[in-house]
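User: structure tokens for this one?
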Amino acid sequence: MIPPELPKLTIRDVTLRAVRVPMAHPLVTRVVTIENMALLLIDLTTEEGVTGRTYLFGYTERGTTYLAPLVRDLVSAFRGEAIDPVGLYAKGLKALTLFGHEGLTLMALSGVDMACWDALARAAGMPLAALLGGGTDPVPAYNSNGLGLTDDMDALADEARRLVDEADFKAVKLRLGRETWDQDLAALKAVRDAVGAEVTLPVDFNQGLDLDEALRRGRALDSEGVYWIEEPIVFDDLEGSARLAAELQTPIQIGENFYGPRAMSAAIEAKACDYVMPDLERIGGVTGWLCAAAIADDARVPMSSHLFPEVSAHAMAATPTAHWLEYCSWANLVLETPLRVAGGHAHITEAPGTGLDWNEDAVARYRVDL
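Assistant:
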């Protein structure tokens, strides 16, 4: 429940807008290539005049059109109720029982939840990190823009240097999963030579391998000094992932596809990973994140974030086993004040809420129909 000293807010309505923004570094993985990112912008209004803001990744234009009616229906069901994020989250799950608690339904509820927390922190006049009991110290971040599956090694090396230089990053993530291991090894060596031994290199296969190939490439990676191997196989093969975690020396990182905290708990119980990295849109928003953080703390598992760097920075600040913030700039073009990243860290400001306000000129420029 909301502490009694915090302002009370009453849900009034929601405004939704879809935008399609160009990406400075296209996302090129083994399973998909995205050059323009579709976002659903959420403005949750209250009777008291405070507006909570967040966004959801639709990934494609169809994705935003799928999410929008679900978000509207949830807010309609909550209209007139006090913003108690934990209580509303439980009510939302109950309302969605017949439709399931994975996929688009949980994504929509996560969006409403994040907007509720933003509104509450704005009304309290403090950063969300502080409202959640965390501090506002800089959060270690790695650059997750770009470094996709190009076969142009010179271009890959140049991009790696640029990504490090963007904000003096101490870590950048490299996508792997080319047709052969030799091609992946060439890419890894090109990036390593470009950025030097002091830069941390996690690698991500984006679920692109079968178990046998993941074991083969994972064993080869054990001698290459990478920081973690992310999602080498399909996300819900916990048995296969547990075998990888047991047999490989390099830590296994999974979690962006955990739908709710219980899914993360099941993965940890199955010993399917060494690290976890929940996604706010899938884990259940800030409320789901807090539950997941408690699970990770109990299991003493390092917990990183996936996407949503503006909100994730606040959530990470209140996470006992906080590890790495994944930084991507995909929403920057429509933000009035993008998240500041410098010295390889994300810097949380003292502004109330999560700091998400829209650049209305840019929203108008990139807006698409819902």
